[in-house]
Amino acid sequence: MAVLITDTCINCAACEPECPNQAIYEPGASWSMSEGTNVSGMVTLTDGREIDADEMQEPLSDDFFFIVPDKCTECKGFHDEEQCIVFCPVPDCIIPDPEREESEETLLARQQMLHG
Ligand code: SF4
Ligand code: SF4
């Protein structure tokens, strides 16, 4: 499953540079699928929306750092552990998203989609 940042985040920014998929953004930042990945053209998100990979999207949080679920692979294909969790200084600030349970196969397929 993708992981999410909770409201215990202190906005320290330690996690952001550690993500191999550039899935982490600062509060209020616009994001795109193509940033930090090889994705181009139209892409269908897991919520069914079809977007241009280069088009900047609305921030998912104006208050805390946030993770774009469609770019999070739990670090599969790069690391054995979720690097954002490893580097976050606040215990249990970043947690598995209970709404997004995903198999290893799904996460690896996403990693291929992002970087293949
Ligand atoms: S688990 Fe890995 S891929 Fe997902 S947001 Fe954290 S660092 Fe990025
Ligand atoms: S490392 Fe943790 S506390 Fe710091 S910005 Fe990331 S989620 Fe927030």
Question: How do the helices and strands line up, and which of them pair or pack?
Answer:
Elements: E1 3-5, E2 24-25, E3 42-44, E4 50-52, E5 66-67, H1 83-87, E6 94-96, H2 104-115
Antiparallel strand pairs: 1-6, 2-5, 3-4
One iron/sulfur cluster binds at residues 5, 9-15, 65, 87-88, 90, 93-94.
Q: What would you say this structure looks like, in words?
A:
- The chain is of the alpha+beta class.
- The chain has helices at residues 83-87, 104-115, and strands spanning 3-5, 24-25, 42-44, 50-52, 66-67, 94-96.
- It contains two helices and six strands, in the order E-E-E-E-E-H-E-H.
- The chain has a two-stranded antiparallel sheet with strand order 1-6.
- The longest helix is centred in the C-terminal third of the chain and has 12 residues, at 104-115.
- The two termini are 20 Å apart.
- The model has no long low-confidence stretch (mean pLDDT 96).
- One iron/sulfur cluster (SF4) binds next to loops.
Task: Please describe the structure with a list of short key phrases separated by commas or semicolons.
15% helix, two-stranded antiparallel sheet, alpha+beta, binds iron/sulfur cluster, two-stranded antiparallel ribbon, Alpha-Beta Plaits
